[in-house]
Amino acid sequence: MIPASPPFVAGAIAFFDGQRYRIHSWCVMPNHVHVLVEPITGFELESILHSWKSFTAHALNKRLEQTGEVWQKESYDHLIRNEESYAKVVEYVTSNPGAAGLRNWKWFG
């Protein structure tokens, strides 16, 4: 990811919040993204992820005047089964910048 991309990627992820999904927690890191997202009825997680990756990859490649893959093909999902699991995932996502040594990082919530 390029240095200017965290705000762009964060904006793309937030764009359909409340319409296609509900974002519970998120973090855009310099080289990866974490999102705790709840699809709204009628929308599938796979299509939501594809939308984020496709839109951001096309825009970033255009901005950099290049082609090629921006994101890894795979993603890792985890089913939240209870409040304890939910709290652990939120803590993991929001503490990711500090754990990576990023100070004053504002691309999480």
Descriptive overview:
The protein is an alpha+beta fold and 109 residues long. It has three helices and two strands; from the N terminus they run H-E-E-H-H. Strands 1-2 form a two-stranded antiparallel ribbon. Helix 1 runs antiparallel to helix 2 (45-64). The radius of gyration is 14 Å and the shape is globular. It starts with a helix and ends in a 10-residue tail after the last helix. The model has no long low-confidence stretch (mean pLDDT 91).
Give the arrangement of secondary structure elements.
Elements: H1 5-14, E1 21-28, E2 33-39, H2 45-64, H3 83-99
Antiparallel strand pairs: 1-2
Helix pairs in contact: 1-2
Largest sheet: 2 strands, antiparallel
Strand order of the largest sheet: 1-2
- The first-to-last residue Cα distance is 19 Å
Specify the number of helices.
Answer: 3
Proportion of helical residues: 40-55%
Strand % is 5-15%
Q: What is the string of SSEs from the N terminus onward?
A: HEEHH
- Average pLDDT for all residues: 91
**Secondary-structure content class:** alpha+beta
- Roughly how many Å is the radius of gyration? 14 Å
Oligomer: single chain
Q: What's the total count of β strands?
A: 2
